[in-house]
Amino acid sequence: MLTQILALVFLLQCAFTFGLHFHPLDPLTPQEINKTSFIVKKSHLGNLKDLTFHYLDLEEPNKSHVLQWLSPNPSKKPPPPRRRSLVVVRAGGQTHELIIDLTTSKIVSSRIYTGHGFPSFTFIELFRASKLPLIYPPFKKSILDRALNISEVSCIPFTVGWYGETTTRREVKASCFYRDGSVNVFTRPIEGITVTIDVDSMQVVKYSDRFKKPLPDKEGNDFRTKHKPFPFSCNVSDTGFKILGNRVKWANWKFHVGFTARAGVTISTASVLDPITKRFRRVMYRGHVSETFVPYMDPTYEWYYRTFMDIGEFGFGRSAVNLQQLIDCPQNAAFLDGHVAGPDGTAQRMTNVMCIFEKNGYGASFRHTEINVPGQVITSGEADISLVVRMVATLGNYDYIVDWEFKKNGAIRVGVDLTGVLEVKATSYTSNDQITENVYGTLVAKNTIAVNHDHYLTYYLDLDVDGNGNSLVKAKLKTVRVTDVNKTSSRRKSYWTVVKETAKTEADGRVRLGSEPVELLIVNPKRKTKIGNTVGYRLIPEHLPVTSLLTEDDYPEIRAGYTKYPVWITAYNRSERWAGGFYSDRSRGDDGLAVWSSRNREIENKDIVMWYNVGFHHIPYQEDFPVMPTLHGGFTLRPSNFFENDPLIG
Description:
Radius of gyration: 27 Å
Number of helices: 9
Helix content: 10-25%
Number of strands: 30
Strand content: 35-45%
């Protein structure tokens, strides 16, 4: 009895200290962000020149500690994990990494990073770089030579990648565009000019004006719709959903939703209710988009470097937009804010960057009509209703609509819609018949070529199917010939059967899909159904997976080697979350998913992570101009022998 009383007192103390709905993976609060900033500024770094905050997030607590604390058994609860923040700042031309203990208000770790790559750019750096060409005399002369008005010019800084240089600096190349009344800035490039800028010194270090091309017409490039949004509502169930702090409960699901400057929306500790035992069972510890890779397929001087890794170079969360009712989310969606650190380390509120709503798929989760019961026609089914967590990130010309969709059948559907405007280059061609050279894209309008490119979104999926000890099983479909017709009394000559292979090491966990019929399952070998099947979840891609076509010795591919396989399985390590490495800008491929996987660690009956690439080879078409209709990709994680029967019947 005394133990139970003490446990209750402890829980009440936690509720008072952290709030009733505290979760160890809660994002840093504005107060914690500001406290972290204050501690850093009071340290020796506060006296250094140009102190700038590039990363400020929760230091990932120990996973086992988090799971113990979330245990439903109060007597076994340890103290809550210590709240610590991980900080990356630039000061005095160096990158500093710090870990701050928010309980003791002390710096527990501080070091100077000396490896390859740089932290993400801040928006103030990009803004200043965008204005620099407008006061640079050679650029002003180039604009005058083209008979353009410099007050109508907008410049956009692009990251530059890495191409074998032994020494690199924080650098961007600015491309410039001529508005002249147009709001679709990307459709009117001033071709032939490249402005290279050192971001630390904020100076132009190289300038090139190689040729002139006619400006694409501003007429017909307006992306704004003439139609009013149509009111719609998706709150279609009897129960609705509850948001308790960062915890969400809906139907048979409970999970934690967070928001960070780098990943944007994060889903954690997702568990589904077993309809028989009435207990929640673990499915996924952590899930988010880990990195993007967008290489353009134009090798010319003005374009070759455009091979963007947006999450590491800019940040998905930092690029999240204020969601609009009736455009992004239904009328009765719940909207959530996020908080990030600004360049000066102070907390910035990002309003309505996530929304949560119930969705009616206007189909059936299941249905059946039975006509073989004498005198009856029996029809039964259930509407396809799900819960969606949504975020939209706008990175330059592209908009990414990211959805996490939870279904009552125990599945998690993960989707992304690509839209926005194309990145184009100016040309003298006005008709396809005139083209006699490789233009590396499609003529989508007069004087306008949309360049071929790829999109890859790499998802980090720390699945914990009924616990930490999981394995990858490849269920391969193999053709078998019927050889003994007399025994089977069959006139069939063939059938297919399933041959299961369990991956032993990370080398086995690098999987190409499409060459043979196979289903990939994450199973818990220690958990079985009552009739003896191993419980698991299977991966269902929504279209044929896309992998990189770049050669392995091409520098962008060296940096983004994780795009060579659609599926990777690695051993869990809490520091391994960013597929392109922690420092993506100007990285050299010596950190990240491909490097971690090459260690070839054991992954059978271990705590493992699945990485899945949603990829697109984008050949532009005229219908993509002046604004691109959404292009969808995604995958589903679906229970496979996880339940005793269909959980919708329960």
